[in-house]
Amino acid sequence: MKTTGGTDDQKRRAAERAADLVSSGETVGLGTGSTAAFAVRALGRAVEAGELEDVFGVATSFASRELAREAGVPLCSLDEVECIDVAIDGSDQVDADGNLIKGGGAAHAREKVVDAAAHRFVVVADPSKLAETLDRPVPLEVLPAARTLVSARVDELGGDPVLRTADRKDGPVVTDNGNFVLDCDFGAIDDPASLSADLSATPGVVEHGLFVGLADEAYVGTDDGVDARTY
Ligand SMILES: O=C[C@H](O)[C@H](O)[C@H](O)COP(=O)(O)O
User: Record-annotated residues binding substrate (predicted)?
Assistant: First the structure.
């Protein structure tokens, strides 16, 4: 369940502007998804051209690690990193306060660890991701054995949970961490902080895709430039 409303040019403009923020010697969180991918490729080109030295990427998923390798971005693993200078990551929806819904690619658990740890977390997006109020389904990564109990709790919280399945696989999507994903439709989310706290307090939820108050900036690529927002 990916959003594909924006154009590649819009995504590329946003991501390349964000990649320009990275300086030599920095550690960079590498987000997952089609928009963040443009930033990873731009970083790889800068490394190859000698414009960036001693830069290390921290991948947020199997996919971002593979892309970074292909693009020539040196990597260090999440469990050995002590500080992340900048994280560049995409989003499925961005509200007026910079709160996000992430996890369209089921990578939100590691993304949240990396994005929250970064001194500067920059979201890269196209205009189709902007909303006044978040209203897309919130992905929950859940322990497989807890799926029924977590679904019942989501129902109590006013949500409608659907187990994510894949087009080219029978059965559920399995995350990089070996868990399932429930896409939970809560309608318009008027109080993301409160819903985030309720979901985080639900046993069996490994991580949810509401990123409340984590983003420092958003770069939104348009047809002729980049709209930069600070939160
Ligand atoms: O799990 C995936 C991530 O949260 C992505 O960053 C998010 O789904 C946005 O992806 P895209 O840039 O492809 O729309």
Answer: 32-35, 89-92, 102-105, 129
My answer on whether 110 and 149 are in the same domain is: no
Is 213 labelled a binding residue? no
Which residues neighbour 22 within 8 Å (Cβ) at sequence distance 6 or greater?
A: 28, 43, 46, 52, 55, 85, 86, 88
8-47 residue pLDDT tens: 999 999 999 999 999 999 999 999 999 999 999 999 999 9
- Quick: pLDDT tens for 144-170: 999 999 999 999 999 999 999 998 889
Report field, pTM of the whole predicted structure over 0.80: yes
Query: Residues near ligand 1 with C-beta < 6 Å?
Result: 2-3, 31-36, 89-92, 102-108, 111
Statement to judge: residues 217 and 204 lie in one domain: no
The two beta strands, 27-30 and 84-89, are: parallel
To the question of whether residue 102 is assigned a binding role by annotation, the answer is yes
Q: Report the number of secondary-structure helices (H) and strands (E) in the chain.
A: 6, 15
Catalytic residue IDs: 111
Q: Is the complex ipTM higher than 0.90? A: yes
Residue nearest atom 5 of ligand 1, based on CA coordinates: 33
Count of the separate structural domains present in the chain: 2
